[in-house]
């Protein structure tokens, strides 16, 4: 995927970026995205030669597994330990001749009522899970039986702590919380307070709000240096108000995020006509702390150049009803055209200085 992006971007640079952008429907079908609209990164890491690095952080590796593989590992950990200790119990009982004297009342067995591998397996399960039906048990007639019981109890406790901990973290991971954080389908460019601005909208569908919510944006675009070096997927920061504190949000109602297009903006020289020839992607990252669990949550989305509407403005989705504010989510993505100059912010600035 990264290779396709690089080849496509490189071709655009070599052609002087003169090709017109295809229509909206065709672009969506042909365009490879760096980040999908639902926040998934479309970057293939490729094969990893040193896979032992995953084992050094076994907890994170288990948590990152898909549920079907995690349940397989979860089940196998218990089954393997049960079967392994059952074999040890049965071999020890066979060597001590407890199997042959299972019905002899005068015999002093080490493992009572263990006459087959199945009975040894039941003893293993009952010991590790502390079921204790009472029909099979390890007696005080042999030291190795006591040691085996202690070892299985310790190993079983370790497996319980690891597996239950992984399951709890996997279920409570904040990625699911990001599903209720929504972004507008389009960005818009229009004037606000006589300044050309790039705007998009975010919202939270839950009543429990994000704590210390922060918003960031990255521009993904290829470029060619003056020395002829081609840089694919170069990341540059888009200022959303981190110098004024505007990137810190009280996400109680839908917020319209504003990027003022000034001299430091990557869109300073882009006008309405040039926008149709550009090829880039804007990555939006919303981070915050989940109020219910205290875990950090991150939601992502992206906008390509054909998802930016020049000369549009978002409709209001807030109203006052019966003494409280009401959010109309049906108007969350709605925009309407407004009169906006097609000149870039740089061209407008030059005109005002000349005038």
TrEMBL record:
UniProtKB keywords: Ion channel, Ion transport, Membrane, Potassium, Potassium transport, Transmembrane, Transmembrane helix, Transport, Voltage-gated channel
Example of a GO MF term: inward rectifier potassium channel activity
InterPro entries: Ig_E-set (IPR014756), IRK_C (IPR041647), K_chnl_inward-rec_Kir (IPR016449), K_chnl_inward-rec_Kir_cyto (IPR013518), Kir_TM (IPR040445)
Every Inward rectifier potassium channel C-terminal domain range: 181-351
Marked site (Role in the control of polyamine-mediated channel gating and in the blocking by intracellular magnesium) residue numbers: 160
Domain Potassium channel inwardly rectifying transmembrane stretches: 35-174
Record's subcellular location: Membrane
Membrane topology reported for the UniProt record: Multi-pass membrane protein
Regions that span the bilayer: 69-91, 146-169
Family annotation (Gene3D superfamilies): 1.10.287.70, G protein-activated inward rectifier potassium channel 1
GO annotation, cellular component aspect: monoatomic ion channel complex; plasma membrane
Gene Ontology biological-process entries: nervous system development; potassium ion import across plasma membrane; regulation of monoatomic ion transmembrane transport
PANTHER family named among the record's database cross-references: G PROTEIN-ACTIVATED INWARD RECTIFIER POTASSIUM CHANNEL 4, INWARD RECTIFIER POTASSIUM CHANNEL
Similarity section: Belongs to the inward rectifier-type potassium channel (TC 1.A.2.1) family. KCNJ9 subfamily.
Subunit details: Associates with KCNJ3/GIRK1 to form a G-protein-activated heteromultimer pore-forming unit. Interacts (via PDZ-binding motif) with SNX27 (via PDZ domain); the interaction is required when endocytosed to prevent degradation in lysosomes and promote recycling to the plasma membrane.
Name this polypeptide is given: G protein-activated inward rectifier potassium channel 3
Gene this protein is translated from: KCNJ5
């Amino acid at each position: 995927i990264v290779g396709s992006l690089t080849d496509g971007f490189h071709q655009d640079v070599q052609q002087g970026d003169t090709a017109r952008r295809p229509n909206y429907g065709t672009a969506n079908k042909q365009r490879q995205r760096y980040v999908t609209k639902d926040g998934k990164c479309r970057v293939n890491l490729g094969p990893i030669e040193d896979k032992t690095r995953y084992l050094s952080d076994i907890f994170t590796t288990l948590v990152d597994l898909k549920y079907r593989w995690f349940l397989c590992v979860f089940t196998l950990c218990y089954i393997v330990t049960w079967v392994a200790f059952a074999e040890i119990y049965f071999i020890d009982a066979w060597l001590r001749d407890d199997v042959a004297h299972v019905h002899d009342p005068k015999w002093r067995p080490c493992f009572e009522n263990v006459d087959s591998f199945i009975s040894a397996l039941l003893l293993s399960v009952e010991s590790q899970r502390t079921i204790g039906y009472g029909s099979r048990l390890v007696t005080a007639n042999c030291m190795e039986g006591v040691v085996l019981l202690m070892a299985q109890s310790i190993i079983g406790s370790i497996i319980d702590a690891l597996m239950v901990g992984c399951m709890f973290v996997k279920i409570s991971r904040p990625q699911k919380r990001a599903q209720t954080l929504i972004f507008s389908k389009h960005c818009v460019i229009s004037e606000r307070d006589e300044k050309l601005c790039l705007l998009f909208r975010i919202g939270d569908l839950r009543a429990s709000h994000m704590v210390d919510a922060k918003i960031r944006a990255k521009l993904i675009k290829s470029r060619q240096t003056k020395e002829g070096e081609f840089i694919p997927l170069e990341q540059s920061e888009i200022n959303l108000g981190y110098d004024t504190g505007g990137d810190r949000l009280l996400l109680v109602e839908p917020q319209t995020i504003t990027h003022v297009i000034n001299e430091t903006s990557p869109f300073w020289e882009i006008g309405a006509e040039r926008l149709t020839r550009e090829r880039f992607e804007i990555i939006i990252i919303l981070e915050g702390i989940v109020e219910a669990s205290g875990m950090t949550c991150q939601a992502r989305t992206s906008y390509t150049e054909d998802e930016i509407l020049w000369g549009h403005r978002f409709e209001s989705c807030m109203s006052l009803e019966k003494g409280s504010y009401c959010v109309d989510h049906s108007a969350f993505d709605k925009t309407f055209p407004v009169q906006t100059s097609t000149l870039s912010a740089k061209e407008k600035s030059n005109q005002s200085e000349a005038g």
